[in-house]
Amino acid sequence: LAIASQVLAAESSAKVGQPVPEFSLSGLDGPPVSFRKDIRGKAPLTVFFFMTTACSACYEEIREIHEFVSKHPGKVEAWAVAVDLRGAQTVGPYQQSNRFRVKYLLDPKFSLPRAFGFHYTPSLVVVDANGVILHKKGVYAPNERVSEILRTFLR
After folding, report:
1. pTM
2. Can you tell me the mean pLDDT for 102-115?
3. In which element (H, E) is residue 103 found?
4. Which one of 45, 52, 80, 86 has the largest count of C-beta atoms within 10 Å of its C-beta?
């Protein structure tokens, strides 16, 4: 039954070429953040990176995203969707010690990654200014650079 529900969830998840489903999650620094109101259209590219603070592969990829965003100001907006169960209590100190150029959303229930068909971290979604999904990556592969993926979609 669990496998059947995972297959059904994957079939109904947001796919490349489709619009990002509307969502609202708590931001690390306060009020809820809505996709349509607060994110869509703010930059030519938006990347959602699903992570946990205890994940070493997540650290490597978020560091790479930070470097890419730093080299392309105004062209890419990065959102780290932290699925840590303790939320801001864990994510706040992580951001303070690392100072990554990303904005954080808190999703301890793993609801947004599931909406994209993901069941683990790290994973990411690249979205255009119109809110259309351009790319989904659901597995850590050291030879697949996030910067190369993002560079493909920058115009």
Report:
1. 0.89
2. 96
3. strand 103-106
4. 80
